[in-house]
Amino acid sequence: MDLIDCLNPFTPQPIKDSRIKIPRRLPSGRGGFFKEAIPKPAVLSDFPRTYSRYGIPPLIFETELLRVKKPDAIFLTSMMTYWYPGVFETIDVIKNIFPGIPVVLGGNYATLCADHAEKHSGADIVVRGEGERALSRLLKDLFNDTPQLLPEKDDLDSYPLPCFNLLPYMDQVPIMTSRGCPFKCSYCASRILNGGFRTRDPVKVVDEIAFWNKGFGIKNFSFYDDALLVDKEKRVIPMLEEILRRGLECSFHCPNGLHLREVDRFLSGLMFRAGFKTIRFGFETSNAGRQVDTGGKITNDETKAAVVYLKEAGYNTKDIGMYILCGLPGQNTAEVIESIDFVRSCGAKPVIAEFSPIPGTQIWEEAVRTSPYDIENEPLFHNNTLLPCRRKDFTYEMYRELINRARKSIH
What we know:
Blueprint: E1 20-21, E2 35-37, E3 52-54, H1 58-66, E4 74-76, H2 84-97, E5 103-105, H3 108-112, H4 114-120, E6 125-126, H5 131-143, E7 173-175, E8 178-179, H6 190-193, E9 198-199, H7 202-216, E10 220-223, H8 236-246, E11 251-258, H9 265-274, E12 276-284, H10 288-294, H11 300-313, E13 320-326, H12 333-346, E14 349-354, H13 364-370, H14 396-408
Parallel strand pairs: 4-5, 5-6, 7-10, 10-11, 11-12, 12-13, 13-14
Antiparallel strand pairs: 1-2, 2-3, 8-9
Helix pairs in contact: 1-2, 7-8, 8-9, 9-11, 12-14
């Protein structure tokens, strides 16, 4: 088995093209990726921003492919729906080098825009939803073979550990303690991408952390759960206590929005002592009506209390990031300003998160009605940089002012 990471920021081949921006990486595993400005797709020609390709340059990808023994099949994943041009370009390169080898496309884009992917991507098979659930069928279709052993679909602890050791570099490792989310926020695709809310044994999660820490020297881990803190007494609290019991000296990062409602004095203290460094929360808005309409997962009073607990535990303002959604259908700039100022008044850091319309979500139909773009038929228009569902009186100049306001509010 071979794995090519198209986002590898440490490619050993020298980059001699001055148009390609070399990424800067931090010891924690955070940082950028290779970036190259390329011609815009025709539908974005009038948008006043540079269009770029992220990841290893195509020439390096071709070189990496040529090093691989001729495969029986090639599996390709995809993330954001509006990143599909890169997926298409990757498939083109693969088919030029390995003609006749079946290409299987999965991931978020393939699930959320399956019809688009099947019609335009060039992949031989498009998998919707979780890849493990399709594995038995895929092996039958591709090789007329039936696997002798497969993990239990709903038992995440029966799944083997991801093969991160196949990566050409390991400066941090992502961890999942669950899949899905019990909430049904109107803007979120978690319920579409995952087959219900399923959780892992917290002690086995720590076993996985210890495996990478002791065996590979990894000290930085990122949690990408949609609901890491939910059902905390049975899940995150035992996990944190086990991390402390074993004396694992690691740093943990939570780029995905954590649930503020679960934060209390005890949990805050455990998170701080266990090494949770980068903490981000899904606050979204201070508007009480929209809080209810989008999912009812937090209130302003609960937010104030959570920040108090976090600061008592040792976190400071810059540590406590609160995501604020910007560009929701019907949203005006006043709401975003009020949300920024509210987060600042609580003693936390506002972080602007531009809204991206996602097919199949509860807010999708409203997004289709309000967007001036053809978001139903062109996934490029899902790009949050466009603010594709902003009101006409919500200008890009106002948006830039909001960004500056959020950044300046940090002391």
